[in-house]
Every structure is written in structure tokens, then in C-alpha cells.
Write a structure and sequence with these properties.
It is built from 17 helices and eleven strands. This is Nicotinate phosphoribosyltransferase.
């Protein structure tokens, strides 16, 4: 089977899950899958995907895996005790044919605490099932050549001595096998340039640092869980700080766009959080605006970290590193360009939260194609509340 361990997912799912256990254990949510790549025919592989998801739902954490999680400084003992009883509830996920020919429809509905771990392995399953059926000759040598070329761009440039890159590509990987090889190769050949991986299973296997803080779904859910919509971003950041007490201090900046983020990210949050993560819109403009915002709030930008993770390539990351060199700390998370770059077009698939406690939730991105909501009236209201321009 493709997924053989519940650790084969991204760290931020566990860090968010711990917040859910301690602050929102009764929250009910809905997630919906979407393929942004046109003309992809996944229908012939529907039963295969169902079989893989069924196997996923039989998995439980082993004692060795729980011991590893206990060793992470920010994971609390009661959360690990809960995970010792955990498995993914198969009754909460539905996989069927979509409305258009070739489409598949995947939805998840149930307790946030019990369904939060579905997204990453399900997307990894869809990817691997598709590619193992459509790419019988994967082109491993081409993939290795491309990976080596990327790494050498950093290794061979003395001006990039402080360059740090992490692997973030679990959900869109070509296959589990290739993902493993990418992490192993980067760890062996990039030295200190390789910051780690978002994938906990591979971090544990290869002895590298697992990386991640919060994802979009966390701030989206707070639209329904907070005291009022306008304060939901502040509520999410304050709840996060209450849980982690200064640890895991990278704030996600693009659930409502950069303007709305900066309005809420006041001097208190500027000082409290270690930095912010970029995941949509122009990264150069975003970085410049954030540095100016720190200065305006009497915070030295050189003490803060800017994390870039939006559809990055190595040349783009190097360009960003040079622009912000000496002005702040920078880090890069590269996903699809590492784990699905063997010469085939990767799938652009996502699985986003669309409702929480029966209310619609949305991400309003600086990149319009990333906006996802199933209630146009709510989306219009959200734009009005956060003073965002109409579409």
C-alpha cells in the first residue's frame, strides 16, 4: 500500500491537531477535494484510490512512532496519549465520480479532531495512483539529473553560504519511493543547506528536522470558532500563542491577503512571532512590505524570519535569498518542484476546508485561483468585512 504509517504526513497537521484537541475538541468540519489541472481523467482509478484509502483507515500509531512524537519539544504528553487511541474514521470520507467526465469527488465530513489527518495522505494517494497508472516509465535518471542540477545551484555558489531549503512536497509527490530518495539525497549532499522536511515519517527515517507550524485550514476554521468574523485572524494567532507559548512562531499571512494580515499583525504580534510565511502573490513585494511593517512597528527585521513556500523553484528561491540577504532571516520550502519533477506534468490538486460547525469558511488569496469557497454570499461578506476589493 502507498501509506504504511500515519506519520507519512506533514508536521503542521500534528501541530494544528494539538491545538484542536486543547481548544476546539467539539468542532465539526467539511473538506472538499479539487483538481485544478484541466482534462485529468482519474475516474478509471476510483476503485484503486478507494482501496488505498481503506488501508489508510486501518492504520494506527506504533509505540515507536509515539515515542518519536514525544521527543518533539512542542508536542504534549496528553496529545500523544490521544494519538495512541487514534485511527482515521472511514465513515467520514466519501469518494465517488465527479460531475464532469473523468472527475472524481472526495469529501470529508466529521469531527475536526478525527478528520484533520485525512488531507495529506489522501492527496498523496491520488497522485501516486494516477502516476503509477499513466507513467509506466517514470524517468528516474532524468529526475536525479534535475535534482542534482538544483542542488548544485546552491552548493557551487559561495554567496549562498546561509541558504536554507526544506522539502515540502508530500501532498503532490510523484511517489513515496521518489519522495524518500529526494530527502535522502538532499540530506546526504546539501549539508547545512538542507533545513529538513515537512514529512514526519521521512524526518524520522533520515534523522533530519521535521518542519511546520500552521496551515490555511486553522485560520479558516477560526472564522466560525472565534467571537466574530472580523477578529478571527487575531483570535487564531492568540490561540496559537496560548498553546505554544512562543514556540512554532511562524504566522501564515495569506488567508485574507497581505493588506488584512498587516492590519491585524500589530506590534504585539510582530514581537511575539518569529516571522511569517508567504504562500500566494508576488513574494518580492510581500517581503518588502513585511520588512517595512516590522520597521514601522519598531522591530528589527534582521531578528525575524521570512519563509517562502509558494510554488517555489530553486532559481526563484536563490533570487529571493539574494534580495533579502542581510536584511532578515530567510528560509524556503519547496514542494512539487522537488518531489514531482521527473519530466511529467504534476497534478495541481488540493483538499480544503469549506465548512466549520455548519458555517462556510474561505481562504481569500492574493492569487485569485487559490480562493476556494462553496458559498458565494459568504465570500462576498468576508471580502466586505476585511475590506478586500470585490472580484
Amino acid at each position: 500500500m502507498i501509506i504504511t504509517s500515519l506519520l507519512d504526513t506533514d508536521l503542521y497537521k500534528f501541530t494544528m491537531m494539538q491545538v484542536v484537541l486543547h481548544h476546539f475538541p467539539a468542532a465539526q468540519v467539511e473538506y472538499r477535494y479539487k483538481c485544478r489541472t484541466p482534462n485529468v481523467n482519474l475516474a478509471p482509478y476510483l476503485d484503486e484510490i478507494r482501496e488505498e484509502v481503506h488501508a489508510l483507515c486501518q492504520l494506527e500509531f506504533t509505540e515507536d512512532e509515539l515515542d518519536y512524537l514525544r521527543g518533539l519539544r512542542f508536542i504534549k504528553s496528553d496529545f500523544v496519549d490521544f494519538l495512541g487511541l487514534f485511527h482515521l474514521p472511514e465513515k467520514c470520507i466519501h469518494i465517488d465520480h465527479g460531475e464532469l467526465p473523468g472527475e472524481i469527488a472526495i469529501s470529508v465530513k466529521g469531527s475536526w479532531l478525527h478528520t484533520i489527518l485525512f488531507e495529506i495522505p489522501v492527496l498523496a494517494i491520488v497522485n501516486e495512483v494516477f502516476f503509477r497508472n499513466t507513467c509506466k516509465e517514470p524517468g528516474w535518471d532524468e529526475g536525479r539529473r534535475r535534482l542534482r542540477k538544483k542542488m548544485n545551484l546552491v552548493i557551487d555558489d559561495p554567496a549562498l553560504a546561509d541558504f536554507r531549503v526544506a522539502e515540502y512536497g508530500t501532498r503532490r509527490r510523484f511517489s513515496k519511493q521518489w519522495h524518500d530518495e529526494v530527502v535522502e539525497t538532499m540530506h546526504a549532499q546539501m549539508g547545512a543547506h538542507f533545513a529538513g522536511t515537512s514529512n514526519i515519517f521521512l524526518a524520522r527515517k533520515h534523522g533530519v528536522t521535521p518542519l511546520g507550524t500552521m496551515g490555511h485550514e486553522y485560520l479558516q476554521a477560526c472564522q466560525a470558532l472565534g467571537p466574530r468574523l472580523r477578529d478571527s485572524q487575531v483570535f487564531a494567532l492568540e490561540t496559537w500563542a496560548k498553546e505554544y507559548r512562543g514556540d512554532l512562531g511562524i504566522a501564515l499571512s495569506d488567508v485574507y491577503g497581505m493588506d488584512a494580515f498587516l492590519r491585524d499583525f500589530d506590534m504585539y504580534f510582530c514581537k511575539l512571532f518569529d516571522g511569517a510565511r508567504h504562500d500566494s502573490g508576488d513574494p518580492f513585494q510581500w517581503g518588502e512590505r513585511l520588512l517595512a511593517h516590522y520597521v514601522a512597528n519598531r522591530v528589527d527585521p534582521r531578528t525575524k524570519t521570512l519563509v517562502f513556500s509558494d510554488a517555489l523553484t530553486f532559481p526563484r528561491a536563490i533570487e529571493l535569498a539574494k534580495q533579502f540577504s542581510g536584511r532578515c532571516k530567510v528560509s524556503f520550502g519547496i514542494g512539487t518542484n522537488l518531489t514531482n519533477d521527473l519530466g511529467h506534468e504534476p497534478l495541481q490538486i488540493v483538499m480544503k476546508m469549506v465548512r466549520c460547525n455548519g458555517q462556510p469558511v474561505a481562504k481569500v488569496s492574493d492569487a485569485p485561483e487559490k480562493t476556494m469557497c462553496d458559498d458565494p454570499a459568504y465570500l462576498a461578506y468576508l471580502r466586505q468585512v476585511f475590506q478586500l476589493p470585490p472580484v
